[in-house]
Amino acid sequence: xxxxxxxxxxxxxxxxxxxxxxxxxxxxxxxxxxxxxxxxxxxxxxxxxxxxxxxxxxxxxxxxxxxxxxxxxxxxxxxxxxxxxxxxxxxxxxxxxxxxxxxxxxxxxxxxxxxxxxxxxxxxxxxxx
Length: 129
Known about the structure:
alpha+beta; 4 helices
């Protein structure tokens, strides 16, 4: 579900898997799948009620990993571009379509990764389609 841009290099399958669970959960309106991609802190910051209201009409497409940067302690920063389509009333800026660049902070979890809240300085970037 998440493609990898040319030039990114080798990407661990676990990175693609956690990002796919994130986006598939949104597209399927499946909080359990979405939450399975998040740390406990990440789930606490976006409980099911927030997820349900925030993504009620959202469909994401064109997810592409554009960079994967190690932080030096085993964590990774994954930059992902994608398009979201939603009811304008559910949009960040009342638009039916937004192009996004998000930074996902990935932390090791067993043999895989989970998405943790991003540290300061990794803000979302969006424009209207």
